[in-house]
Amino acid sequence: MAAMCELPTAFTPCEFRVKWADSAWEIDQARRLRRAVFCVEQGVFVGDDLDVVDQQAQALVAVSQVGGMPDQVVGTVRIHEAEPGLWWGSRLAVHAAFRHHGRLGAMLIRLAVCSAHARGCHLFLAHVQQQNVPLFEKLNWTCLKAETLHGRPHALMQARLDQHPPCHDPLWGFATRSRSPA
User: What are the pLDDT digits (tens) for 9-19?
Assistant: First the structure.
């Protein structure tokens, strides 16, 4: 039997929206992605990576778009205000199949800092896995000191807020388009 359509059957979305998670399906998929990255792929945690920070954190998501409609969560990070003006970012994760699409990790980091900045952040910190330090440095972060967390090398890093203008509409967030890597 002949194929009905000669278009390729493999499809990779090329549109993404990076935004604050505001629906149950986004939060659920973000948590599943974190488990896949931090528990299964990296083996940092056993079973689950949820902790007390999740009770107060705001999840951010990178959502693939198909025909302008949300499809799936392909990246996530969480932010929280530990004390007035002091914000932290943590649990940055991008699905392995989407790590080279549209700079999703960079966009999640940018929205994390810019949205906290709009909410009165005076200091934004993160414990960054050592292999990701160059990315954060390119995004105007400063390394404060080397650390070991969960038995792995990390760096305590600080965002340069003067390089991250406030984003007052994080539920809309940012959009990007990309081509899949050849």
Answer: 555 667 889 99
| Degrees, nearest 5: CA angle 178-130-147 | 145
> Length of the chain in residues, anyone?
182
Q: Residue ranges per domain, the chain?
A: 15-177
Q: Within its chain, how far is the Cα of 173 from the centroid?
A: 12
Contact between 101 and 178 under an 8 Å Cβ cutoff? The reply is yes
The topology under which CATH files domain 15-177 is Aminopeptidase (3.40.630)
pLDDT at 182: 44
Q: Give the angle 40-42-46 at the CA atoms, nearest 5°.
A: 55
Q: Both tokens of residue 22?
A: 């505001």
pLDDT at 179: 54
Which H helix or E strand runs over 146? strand 141-149
Whole-angstrom distance, CA of residue 120 vs CA of residue 108: 19
Q: What is the Cα–Cα distance from 172 to 7, expressed in whole angstroms?
A: 32
For residue 19 the two structure tokens come to 């935004």
Q: Is 79 helix (H, G, I), strand (E, B) or coil?
A: strand
Is pLDDT larger for residue 176 or for residue 8?
Answer: 176
